[in-house]
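I'll show a sample.
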Amino acid sequence: VYEPHDDLSDHYMLVDQEGALKAVCTDTPLNIPRIPERWEQMFGFKTFAGLDFDAFYFTGRLILHPDMRRSLALGKFLSYVYQCAHEKGFKCNFIYCPPALVGMYEQLGHRRYTENFNSPEAGIYRIPMLLFLHDYDHMRRVRSPLLRTARKLPQDETGDDLVKKRLPNLDALANARLMSEKDLFARISEAMLKSSSEKPAIFRGMTDEELAQVSQRSVILDVKGGDRIIRQGNRAEDMYLILDGLFEVVLNAGDHVVGLGFIEPGSIFGELSYFQKTPRTADVFALTDGQLLMF
């Protein structure tokens, strides 16, 4: 896949000792002559009008071999890409990712700052995020694997405050990694109290250690009414517990669209396809603004 800005981008690859490709990604400076219109919309760049776009860049096409997801080599690869961007003078990194990768990016130090969107290419739910390359305090709070590399490099937060002032909700969006297990499960319990159903079976009989693992791997998503969270036919990479809001399950049956029902706080959706490793069997839309726990 070739795009006009590719000639201005840095392309990174990770190969193993046998020469097999294990990971790739692309860094594109945002001071290019013409920023793609879809980027303007997805990242809300109008918010940053008048700021120094020479310090901004976008990371895309991060593609990982399945056995790289939790490997040490991935951390080293991403640290090298981070170091290269740091040495080029970049200060703010923009990315978007599917819900399943939000936890990984939050651990690196990225933060959510604007509304999520359904990608125009495939209607897949995406979450825009950004990383301040010199915000070592935040990296320390989330225990970012990039911090070891960051400490070896000069720190210069000049200009960060100008960007942060444009983002009043930067730290308002919940990050489960920064919540205590007690606070997270208090939030889950609150959702259960709103529900007319029993406690989800998935939590029954769990030990404290197992619940702690759920806490560590969970991601809280704030969604807007109209967002399509799950698309029928897509691969299942996650499942969701509704903390707040009302959602509808919709089946696309040829030329007909059939509403299968509404789901409310305390309900789980997406678990069948997730556990059975099968494609999604229906769409799920947010009918109202709401909040989900993804795991």
